[in-house]
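R.M. (postdoc): so does anyone remember the format we settled on? I'll just put the structure tokens first.
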């Protein structure tokens, strides 16, 4: 078994195996864990899911730069904290 992420070993427009097959392939006891992983991949723009049809690879690299998003979020949080501190002083 390869340790590459599942989307790196599949082709764009290729269908991912079903949840139970992925559980077996990655030795994951909970189907919920697979579903959560799929939700993350959907959010990152790597796969799309269709109820009753499965999951399909749509890209091999994320469409967004997660680190840039996290840094922007951190900057927003810092601004809110600074404003709160000014108002509380």
């Amino acid at each position: 078994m390869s340790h590459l992420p599942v989307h790196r070993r599949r082709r764009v427009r290729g269908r991912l195996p079903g949840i139970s097959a992925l559980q077996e392939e990655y030795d994951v006891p909970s189907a919920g864990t697979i579903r959560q992983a799929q939700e993350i991949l959907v959010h990152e723009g790597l796969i799309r899911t269709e109820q009753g049809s499965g999951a399909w690879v749509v890209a091999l690299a994320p469409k967004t730069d997660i680190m840039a998003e996290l840094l922007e979020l951190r900057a927003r949080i810092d601004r809110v904290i600074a404003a709160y501190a000014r108002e509380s002083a």
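R.M.: ...and that's the designed sequence above, right after the tokens. Also worth knowing: The longest helix spans residues 66-88. Residues 6-88 form a domain with the Arc Repressor Mutant, subunit A fold (CATH 1.10.10.10).
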